[in-house]
Amino acid sequence: MLVLGIESSCDETGIALYDTQHGLRAHALYSQVKMHEEYGGVVPELASRDHIRRAIPLLQQVLDESGAQRDDIDAIAYTQGPGLAGALLVGSSVACGLGLALDKPVLGVHHLEGHLLSPLLASEPPEFPFIALLVSGGHTQLMRVDGVGRYEMLGETLDDAAGEAFDKSAKLLDLGYPGGPAISRMAEFGDPTAYTLPRPMLHSKNLDFSFSGLKTAVLTVVKNHGDANICEQDKANIARGFVDAIVDVLTAKCMTALKQTGLKRLVIAGGVGANRQLRESLNAAAAKRHYKVYYPELEFCTDNGAMIAFAGAMRLQIDPTLAQKDYAFNVKPRWPLDSLTAP
To answer: pTM for this structure?
Structure first.
């Protein structure tokens, strides 16, 4: 089965072809980061317009690279939510328009399920069941995953997600957009003893998270410098204090989740999963306890079409009737992951 995947939930346009027998055939991604950089964040209207411009050329690029023809496609999977409503509508309309034109069935896919299953695209994928730390954009969640669509929420953020805290703290340090990678790079040059920032809910008796207080702590440190410009070394020190705090919390919660459930496998998914400091901390903590940690390939940590094609293909392998020739699409800007059911 050859599945076309279309991702357009925010500021990346992703197209991919996944073959259930031969794996990922080809994928292409266009990031709008440069366009949104001057505004300090994603402008939804601009994002939607750019998806319109990019989708069809990227589709042709993927077909050319894979050697496939449009008629070879068996089903089309697209991101139905969550995400920016206008951006989702572009991907959905492209998917359903193609489905109608080619007489192919379509399937709406949950964006976060795509992230959650993306480590299974790696050369050494994890087996079910496993614990998953989902750290993508506005989401920080710990899930027990027993199979496709079989997700149990163990803990989630009560306010700012880890990715939001990264971006907002980077903005306070005037590190530009996107802030996550910038503050992580800056932290590599920081002194870990210069600033000890709070570890919110580190010792709570549950698996929930809270990062708004950590962001506020960064704001307080910046304000304490007064009107004077913060030197680059002090920015690096603050960044190091911030990154160490967030990594300590994420690592501790993951280890607790594994201990409480008795599982031995941990999967990291989402953009923050590319963070080098987080990977090093999780690997070290897991090795001490004889756990194994799995990550998506770096190119699949950010939003991409491959994860949508793959998630759609996994569902269709279980139940091919999930894809329908019903092109009256709708989108779900808010769509809880734990509301999904197994195919």
So the answer is: 0.95
Note whether residue 121 is domain-resident: no
In a domain, residue 160? The reply is yes
Which residue type is seen at 233? Q
HEC string for 150-206: EEEEEEEECCCCHHHHHHHHHHHCCCCCCHHHHHHHHHCCCCCCCCCCCCCCCCCCC
Q: Given CA atoms 328, 331, 332, 337 in this order, what sign does their dihedral have?
A: positive
Strand partners, 231: none
Q: 253-264, pLDDT tens digit by residue?
A: 999 999 999 999
For the record, the structure tokens of 33 come out as: 């980061």
pLDDT 10s digits, 262-303:
999 999 999 888 899 999 999 999 999 999 999 999 899 999
Taking residues 199-223, what's their average pLDDT? 95
Q: Residue 58 falls within a domain, yes or no?
A: yes
Do 306 and 272 fall within a single domain?
no
**What is the domain range of residue 92?**
2-116+300-339
Cis peptide before 333 (omega within 30 of 0): no
Which tokens in the block code for residue 60?
């042709």
Check pLDDT > 70 for residue 136: yes
Sole residue written with tokens 């901390």: 281
Q: Which residue, of 295, 310, 326, is where some domain finishes?
A: 295
Distance separating alpha carbons of residues 16 and 62, to the nearest angstrom: 6
278 three-state secondary structure: helix
